[in-house]
Structure formats: structure tokens, C-alpha cells
């Protein structure tokens, strides 16, 4: 199991649109093999910063999702209309898996 943190900066005034679109992304994730659960968080001091935490069986399952046509369909409009820039993703591996990668 791995955890993915996906960080998003949203254009001013587009917060509600981003939050609503997360429902579409979540629906797409829920049918993908290897996805367990996902949550959307908003920063307390900067309401235009969001974090999506997502649990996946392995990195390959997550990579397949972000390369899928389904992901492209539910996120393509956000790049130019909603987000201020490219999102950043961080992969959090269990300690035992991270130690073996050294």
C-alpha cells in the first residue's frame, strides 16, 4: 500500500468549482484497480491550496490512473481554467518499502 499526496493551487474564485470537480475525479478513481480511498483537504490559512490524499495498492496502479484516458477526461479543463500551475505529487511509501529502495 502507498499513499499519494497531490497538491493543487487554485485560481482565486475557482475554489467551489475545483471542489465540485473533485467529485468527478473521485468517481474515476473509485473504479480504478488498486485504488482504496481518497480525501480532499483545504489549507486553513490559504483557501486556494488543496491536498488530495489517495491510497493505492502500489505505485503502478496510481501511475496507470494518471496516464489513463479517464483521468485525462476529468482533469484536462482544470489545467488552464482552474489551477494556477501544474500540481505536485508526492509518493509516501511504507518504511519497510522505502528502506528496501535504498
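^ Assign residues to that structure.
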Amino acid at each position: 500500500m502507498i499513499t499519494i499526496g497531490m497538491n493543487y493551487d487554485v485560481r482565486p474564485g475557482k475554489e467551489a468549482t475545483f471542489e465540485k470537480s473533485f467529485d468527478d475525479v473521485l468517481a474515476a478513481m473509485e473504479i480504478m484497480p488498486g485504488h482504496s480511498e481518497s480525501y480532499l483537504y483545504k489549507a486553513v490559512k490559504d483557501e486556494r491550496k488543496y491536498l488530495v490524499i489517495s491510497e493505492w495498492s502500489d505505485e503502478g496502479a496510481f501511475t496507470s490512473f494518471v496516464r489513463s484516458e479517464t483521468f485525462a477526461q476529468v482533469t484536462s479543463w482544470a489545467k488552464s481554467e482552474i489551477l494556477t500551475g501544474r500540481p505536485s505529487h508526492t509518493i509516501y511509501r511504507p518504511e519497510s518499502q522505502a528502506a528496501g529502495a535504498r
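The beta strands are 2-9, 35-42, 49-56, 88-92.
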